[in-house]
């Protein structure tokens, strides 16, 4: 079992625990804002299950029908997360609009807020783990789950502060306003998750900083070649696909050109995890004099 799958299973367990705690807090207080917080946790459970499915599929080795692997399954999971987040926001907005014209009187607010705070602390700790490990493992599913949890933590802190203000001032209509604010916050979070995932499905190029790093590696490890050009790279889940043209002297033997390609492939794979490199070798008259100059 890979570390990514273990983290995804952990997300499912944490999501169920936090949902149970937040549901208790809502039942204790009758707060619409805390209800919205609990409803968002239902989305957390669904997205954690989707992320678990995605990372398990992404871990399946390449086969005849999927020669490039199954890495993009993680993007489908992230898109689903974004859609679920938007649906939750719509339900919260509906509940908030009803409560705005009929503000509920909060019951047992102090114990309820304490219970809700416990759920927020658990979420914050797991969010930090997911974002840290998701970046290290380059997993879109774990990163999407972590970013959603981050928005949940932020909204939970805002809800707690707002409910406290409602209790102190007696302005119970603030409860509905806070619920609406939570909905807007998670709508933005959902849009960000969907946007990033669609970019991956559309084979967006890797960031410019990553391309610059690849150019430096190629320039430093292509001794014997003339230049490299038409460098392209994309992410597919945790995998990275790199391809470029390598120009070599026309009189160079196939063996010598192949040795350079092996050296370049090894350098790129050492620097970039799960990297697949494709190099098209060309004779000197194909040089464009505008690509990567070999050092």
Automatic annotation (TrEMBL):
Pfam families listed in its UniProt record: Cation_efflux (PF01545), ZT_dimer (PF16916)
Coarse class of the protein's main subcellular location: membrane
Where is each Cation efflux protein transmembrane domain found?
Answer: 11-202
Tell me how this protein sits in the membrane.
Multi-pass membrane protein
Localisation per UniProt entry: Membrane
* Keywords in alphabetical order: Membrane, Transmembrane, Transmembrane helix, Transport
The family assignment reads: Belongs to the cation diffusion facilitator (CDF) transporter (TC 2.A.4) family.
Q: What name goes with this protein? A: Cation diffusion facilitator family transporter
Organism for this UniProt entry? Tropicibacter oceani
